[in-house]
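Sharing in case it's useful to others searching the archive later.

Someone asked me privately for the predicted structure of DUF4383 domain-containing protein, so I'm posting the question and my answer publicly. Question first, with the sequence:
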Amino acid sequence: MNTRTFALVWGILFLLIAGSGFVPGLLQPPGAGHPDMAVDILYGDALGLFPVNVIHSVLHLLYGLWGIAASRSWSGARAYAKVVAISYGLLTVLGLIPGINTLFGLVPIFGHDVWLHLVLALPAFYFGFMRRDAEAERTNTAGTSY
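And my answer, the predicted structure tokens:
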């Protein structure tokens, strides 16, 4: 898989994740241990596992649309992968800190979201910071004359 394919796949994946937060039939009411949220519109557990609310789902939708758009170029896909890696890595850490794991009552990032955010961040880190595609090599050597 190259970086552009990664961005496309992650974009589609984020759209599916967003959909699970917008379809009331796929949401279960928040569990007994879930904290109160300042934004409780569509607040519940997507697929019975992942705490979401409307802001959380809108962010997934935006990351999905951006991933599909970014897949059109190598540089766009690489920038997308870098932002996903950094932002979802940060969300993983914040999700482990009580009191901040709701982003001040705005977005639930606790429970199963912690490991999901890590699973989303790790491949993005690889494609954003480590992977060297043939397209990138052509871009880097295009201005070099021998």
